[in-house]
């Protein structure tokens, strides 16, 4: 599954907040109810694939979908804890949490590792540089770096 875009990351809050609002027990709520609630509000005049957002949240371990139902996980609740005002936009604290828990140590870890390994030290400039051939390749095939490796 592809790494979420910034717009999709902002949608994580909307979907997770909807799950919390609609859940009346530990069983969660219906997936269709979450999609309907999220679809009732449009921001920026563009439509969003809320089912894809639910799948991304599930893949990342923020929610759990089974048999047409969805519930928030402990990790998902931790993400919402960094959003005390229940904003739909991703907060700075949430960005750090996503980077640490989902990208560097989570489901997209192997892609982040591949990117970091593409850098090599330039001792003359006292910095690290990425191979320009790799950069051109990844930008012409962005899903190769953004999609997690299949197990």
Structural write-up:
21% of the residues are buried. Helices cover 54% and strands 12% of the residues. The chain has helices at residues 6-22, 31-39, 50-60, 74-81, 92-104, 109-117, 132-140, 142-146; strands at residues 29-30, 63-66, 69-72, 119-122, 127-130. The chain is built from 8 helices and 5 strands, in the order H-E-H-H-E-E-H-H-H-E-E-H-H. Helix 1 (6-22) crosses helix 2 and helix 1 (6-22) crosses helix 3 (50-60). It has a 3-stranded antiparallel sheet. A two-stranded antiparallel sheet has the order 4-5. The protein has 151 residues and is mostly helical. The chain folds into 2 domains: 6-90, Orthogonal Bundle (Arc Repressor Mutant, subunit A), CATH 1.10.10; 109-146, no CATH class.
The structural domain count equals 2
Biggest sheet features: 3 strands, antiparallel
Oligomer status: single chain
Anisotropy-based shape: elongated
Give the class from helix and strand content and strand pairing: mainly alpha
CATH class of the largest domain: Mainly Alpha
Number of helical stretches of at least 4 residues: 8
Query: Helix proportion of residues, in percent?
Result: 40-55%
Strand order in the largest sheet? 1-3-2
Distance separating the two termini: 12 Å
Number of strands: 5
* Rg, alpha carbons: 18 Å
* Contiguous uncertain segments of 5+ residues: 142-151
Mean pLDDT: 83
Order of helices and strands: HEHHEEHHHEEHH
């Amino acid at each position: 599954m592809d790494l979420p875009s910034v717009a999709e990351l902002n949608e994580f809050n909307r979907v997770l907040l909807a799950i919390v609002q609609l859940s009346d027990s530990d069983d969660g709520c219906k997936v269709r109810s979450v999609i309907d609630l999220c679809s009732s509000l449009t921001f920026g005049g563009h439509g969003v694939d809320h089912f894809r957002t639910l799948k991304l949240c599930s893949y990342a371990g923020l929610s759990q979908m089974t048999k047409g139902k969805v519930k928030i996980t402990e990790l998902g609740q931790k993400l919402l804890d960094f959003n005390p005002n229940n904003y739909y936009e991703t907060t700075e604290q949430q960005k750090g949490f996503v980077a640490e828990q989902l990208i560097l140590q989570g489901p997209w870890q192997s892609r982040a590792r591949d990117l970091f390994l593409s850098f090599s030290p330039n001792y003359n400039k006292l910095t690290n540089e990425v191979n320009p051939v790799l950069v051109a390749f990844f930008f012409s095939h962005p899903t190769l770096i953004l999609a997690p490796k299949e197990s």
